[in-house]
Amino acid sequence: MSNPETTAPDPLGHALLDYQQGQLSATLAVHSSVADEEVLPAAYFFRSLWEMPELERTALEQCQGRVLDLGAGAGCHALELQTRGFVVKAVDISPGAVQVMQQRGVREVARHDLFDPALAQGEKFDTLLMLMNGLGLTGTLEGLEHFLQHAKTLLNPGGQILATSSDISYMYEDEDGALVFDLNGPYYGEVTYSMQYGAEQGAEFGWIFADPTLLQDCATQAGYQVEFLEEDEQQQYLVRLSLGF
What we know:
This protein is 25% helix and 28% strand. It is an alpha/beta fold.
């Protein structure tokens, strides 16, 4: 019987592995339900501290205690935190990404889905790190609400989630600047993506871009204190969701 980990499409992981092995031009094609095809160089996942957006550098400065890096990719954030003395567990659903992180020296790496009950294996964390529009990993509005509850099982008392997301309402503006939504349809920030690397086509997956008002409402309802730390010109923001002691 074949191992599904080795037979399932993993375009992101294979692009990261090729880059790690010296194919510096490795590039992914990203297809989405809201935009034209985009090109994503694998090099972006290997960026150094000073190549990171300011929101990410701020997030790293705000980390505390034991860190769980969710959707860690090639491990650039985990590696930077290790140099600062943090103990970091880096997880990703991509087998190739996990392999790359191990090769690059991330000390604690595991392959997990965001909602995997075994994610913490009984361990708790002080900071959950979700960068690169990391809240999108929750997939849908329902997934976001589910994750905010699930995260409580991963966090120590006083723990925090540091995450980035974006408001993509600007993509629905007409010529006059008015927003045009299907009010009977799903939340406008719910997007479907797929990735392609060469001839390898990955499965479609859901991604959510949560506008700040929506996130404020969801997180407050789930019992978190919400603090918006920073915003950039692309309407991407960094938020801290914290639990009381």
